[in-house]
């Protein structure tokens, strides 16, 4: 890999584990960082203020008397604190992040730039509508393109994340059923679904029942048809599904669901595989959330913010929540909220958030859609599927690929832990990948595959990057099949070795306590 | 296309290895009749960075920027100065482009930051524990109502009339689909909030009382009597804080007996952003932690005994418990939590107190000025940086008239409560450290003009 034209070689003995102790605990560029509360003080501050003018407080006698305990840092200390912490994180900016079902793609910096334009970033959600026409136009334009790309009828923009969008979709379904006086109690969810699906159905007041998968990793259509009946409100399908496979019977599934008066909810977490190639509206879907932080490249930020607009069929659109943006014939935009909903949108099921949704994500997603355009988005889907199939075919001789024989995968390739020896499991392979400089794949999900390893490379990866990953994983797979116990020690090069999660859960320490306070509490 | 690294020759080589002749062979499971034949209709073809930036700039210019005019809006979103280093920190790629920290060995940056955030939120709110954030304040409040339901096994919630009406509407919407009954009403333009009414509503079936502090009209009142009354009936007190900067100056809800404190963290570090993304704050007592929703970072050790942090108590969560989870929440708002924690770290206790004092001093100055306008009354006795005026005219048209004169002069109660006649003349004014004396002069002058 490295080129050293002088031929000089290091004279120190090889010391792969970096065992030599340093006084500081640091290892060159790998710097340890204490907690904020161990380095800051309540007196220190990194912000200067104007002098507080004379005034007589009008706080109703509720002045705070006790200290709060908030440590402060000067600006250089604060910048260093967070910079050092940041370097203990893996990120898509550093390398391949093949977390299946999470679509870790490049986050274009143009998106960050436009989201920070003062005309978007420094606008209050309750400003009079004549002062926010540009913001409303962004929401309207994004909504328009999301409908174009999905072939659906309406879109609810306000949900804050994927699971929030699922809830929105199910509440539309519930409202539509109740409007026709139809009380139904059950939502059917495939075994392979994301955990959010059953949790959301329960949150929306439904009883959840599983539908089994067939040997090819798809919904068992016959089993589904047998279960469908007048008590079923909706079927939640993930398509492409969590095994990385397209449901080839999707249209038949939709027809069967509609035939009993129920609705089809599609979890759109995996829309990246088909964006610009297939429109969910052509598959009979009634509602689908779109994770803007997946398909449309808004940053995941260590676990949010997300954004989960929900596209709706003609049957469900009248029930979508408030507020939403409407365009008028004179070219102006208006927020339809509780006040005017009575005339314009009388069947809305209610409101899901305080304001208008994730505006900062809308600007980013719109910039992304316009950057890629129709040809680029189609290429996104094709490259993401091509990259996943390249991984599938490059590893199927060393790792068990349960569905590889039935044909190509979509945007993610799935493998099992079959053949690992010496008590080794998926987690050992995942942790060894960390030492090789990669983020691990999704582990042990979906549950329908034993020791599942779900690998989603996305279209962001070059062939060279994939080849390097494949070479690393081939070598680790060989070691796992040979029962190499060294894998149990991985990772050895990361900022931390394996962490004791059992201890964390048994004796939860969720906030910092000063040593004296902690001792007193013992 | 600048975001796609594969070349056509790469694609050809990869297809050969896969054994497919075209990329469409890989889409063979998609029914033929549903496959689009070419690029989708309607959407233009790809565009240069310059062209897209130009389009977005043009849209952004159609908005009136808060920082360009005298600006006095609050009601759940506050404009404070954010130190430049905060935005630098959240744009570090290692924070910006990482995922939920499922692999803790290579996510200590996010996990330690979450742990520090949880500590700051818990201390600010006067609680023992806090989670790693929710979507926003309104969804945090609804989750708190559900949590109180689980803890008390009761389902009747009394909501103060001082709670933000959008928050109430979110709760009302979701309560239609759960088994929760909510009792609430609209506020009145009086100096005293509805403490007496709330206490009178508490009964043996009450799961929780929900109070906003400071409330939607900017009023602040002692929560202790409500906490005592709630606890005497076996109910919990949920406090909602939409302006956490206030807690630099006034007592925390936890100190006054609140069991669950939730809020909107937008005002520290996040910015206005036309309503999102924001960051929901959620804190409670330690004994209730297993009923708490959302992600939690906890301290532990690694195989060498070094301190480290992991996501913990995940047996509450949907990816383990599925339909039996405490919430369906999966994503939180970690990047906004980072902005919050970085800003609060830069402030420190000393800085937060100064910031809060400056806000209050400016608000006192403005309140005195505006209350001196003939026909204008101030509703509040006590307030932090936001108070309500009763105008001699309807406030909503007055707000539009002030816009004509280049002033964003507050939030009319007519916007928030369009159907309530008694509130029509109410105008809520927020004054932060960003308002200058000239801004207050401008507000004073245009308000005089528009109420004539």
* Separation of the first and last Cα atoms of chain B: 59 Å
In CATH, the architecture of the largest domain in chain B is 3-Layer(aba) Sandwich
The percentage of residues in β strands of chain A lies in 5-15%
Number of strands of chain A: 12
Give the count of helical stretches of chain B. 14
Q: What is the chains' assembly state?
A: heterodimer
Strand % of chain B is: 5-15%
Shape of chain B: globular
Helix content of chain A: 25-40%
Helix amount of chain B, in percent?
25-40%
Q: Helices and strands of chain B, in N-to-C order?
A: HHHHHEHEHEHEHEEEEEHHEEHEHEH
Structural domains of chain A: how many: 2
CATH fold-type name of the largest domain in chain A: Aspartate Aminotransferase, domain 2
CATH architecture group name of the largest domain in chain A: 3-Layer(aba) Sandwich
What is the CATH topology descriptor of the largest domain in chain B? Answer: Aspartate Aminotransferase, domain 2
CATH class label of the largest domain in chain A? Alpha Beta
Please work out how many helical segments of chain A DSSP would assign. Answer: 15
Structure description:
The complex is a heterodimer of chains A (522) and B (452). Chain A is of the alpha/beta class. Chain A folds into two domains: 255 residues, Aspartate Aminotransferase, domain 2 (3-Layer(aba) Sandwich), CATH 3.40.640; 129 residues, Aspartate Aminotransferase, domain 1 (Alpha-Beta Complex), CATH 3.90.1150.10. Helix content of chain A is 33%, strand content 9%. A seven-stranded mixed sheet of chain A has the order 1-7-6-5-4-2-3, sandwiched between helices. The longest helix of chain A is centred in the C-terminal third of the chain and has 37 residues. Chain A is globular and about 70 Å long. By secondary structure, chain B is an alpha/beta fold. Chain B folds into two domains: 115 residues, Aspartate Aminotransferase, domain 1, CATH 3.90.1150.10; 260 residues, Type I PLP-dependent aspartate aminotransferase-like (Major domain) (Aspartate Aminotransferase, domain 2). Chain B is built from 14 helices and 13 strands. A seven-stranded mixed sheet of chain B has the order 1-7-6-5-4-2-3, with helices on both faces. A four-stranded antiparallel sheet of chain B has the order 10-11-13-12. In chain B, helix 6 packs across helix 7. The longest helix of chain B has 38 residues. In chain B, 63% of the residues are buried. The interface between A and B is large, with 207 and 211 residues.
